[in-house]
Amino acid sequence: MSKIMIYAEVTRDNYLHTVVFELAYKAQKLAEKLDSADVSALLICKCGLGENFKEAFMNSGFDNVYIVENDRYTHYSTELYSKAAIEIIKEVQPDIVLIGATTQGRDLAPRISSSLHTGLTADCTGLDINENGKLAATRPTFGGKLMATILCKTLPQMATVRPKVFKPSPENIVKNTNFIYKDFEIADIKRKVEFIDFSANLRNEINELDSAEIIVAGGRGMKNEEGFELLKQLADVLDGTIGASRDAVEMGLAPQSAQIGQTGKTVTPKLYIACGISGAIQHLVGMQEANRIVAINADKDAPIFEVCDCGIVGDAFEIIPKLIEELKK
Ligand SMILES: Cc1cc2nc3c(=O)[nH]c(=O)nc-3n(C[C@H](O)[C@H](O)[C@H](O)COP(=O)(O)OP(=O)(O)OC[C@H]3O[C@@H](n4cnc5c(N)ncnc54)[C@H](O)[C@@H]3O)c2cc1C
């Protein structure tokens, strides 16, 4: 029987990352194409935490959950986590391993794949099973101009997927999940990096981009800090969050954590307001799944107008204050 394993990432505040549920639902669909493959999760966490997630695992279609608990796992560590993940994967021998392309997943996945001498397709936007029962992992390439479908010759076939690329199951998929506890000797493993403290980003609101329902995003057309201050005011009135194009990030108008697009975040808010953003393909791949897109741009031929539901042609510095005024009413 084929096996699919998902890395069940735990967030800093001790919840299962939403990407776990997105991957779980995708894994169910892949499993159907593999004659009901076994779907398992790998959870690495501090002692006792696994208990909190059992119901969530049972309602998300997992056949087996491998739990590795140790208080040394309280904070993510490349050396400690990869040791546990590699040992479990060697033992279970899954055909496919899926990991969220989060900060943690992007660190962990290549470490595992290089250690197991297998291939890893990063930042996939599509996963399927081909006619030979192999994982067909699709991702943008050549700066987003082409979509490449990549097959892996070795096992396990590994892929990372950014949060929000797939949707979680709309309803519970209840299974009689087996919980298998594992333990490894990690006392002697030296960490190159020690966790000292966590301090929030000064512009902390930007960390909420992944789950934001309203995003006000700015590009090069917002020109300067005053431009972004206007966006902030608009976001405040709408109870939204600030996002940015790569050019705006490179201009120092927003931190990298606010970048949306191919090399930034993928977002699916209810409302996305793009201000002074031209709509390059690398930006669009990160936001075009938003429910409603409003674009404000001085150039009537800007490509962003091809994907938006509502387009306003004009100077954002004139339009946004009027919008704020109207919204306040
Ligand atoms: C491999 C690769 C990865 C990339 N990844 C990303 C990514 O993750 N995210 C991303 O965003 N980009 C990414 N890029 C860059 C991307 O190709 C574009 O260069 C970038 O998105 C352009 O940003 P922009 O729209 O802010 O700037 P521009 O393309 O310069 O557009 C500025 C827009 O502002 C408008 N404007 C100017 N003044 C005003 C005004 N007063 N009022 C209203 N509108 C105005 C202009 O008409 C113009 O349309 C990537 C590129 C590559 C090659």
What can be said about this structure in brief?
The protein is of the alpha/beta class.
Structure characterization notes:
It is a single chain. The protein has helices at 18-33, 50-58, 78-92, 103-115, 225-238, 246-250, 281-284, 304-307, 316-328, and strands at residues 3-7, 38-45, 64-69, 96-100, 120-124, 126-129, 135-141, 146-150, 157-161, 178-182, 214-218, 241-244, 271-275, 292-297, 310-313. The protein folds into two domains: 3-182, 3-Layer(aba) Sandwich (Rossmann fold), CATH 3.40.50.620; 204-328, TPP-binding domain (Rossmann fold). Helix 3 crosses helix 4 (103-115) and helix 5 (225-238) packs parallel to helix 9. It starts with a strand and ends with a helix. The protein has nine helices and 15 strands. The chain is globular and about 60 Å long. Helix 2 links the parallel strand 2 and strand 3 (64-69). A seven-stranded parallel sheet has the order 5-9-4-1-2-3-10, with helices on both faces. Bound molecules: flavin-adenine dinucleotide.
What key attributes describe this structure?
329 residues; alpha/beta; Rossmann fold; 7-stranded parallel β-sheet; 5-stranded parallel β-sheet; 9 helices; 15 strands; 28% helix; globular; binds flavin-adenine dinucleotide
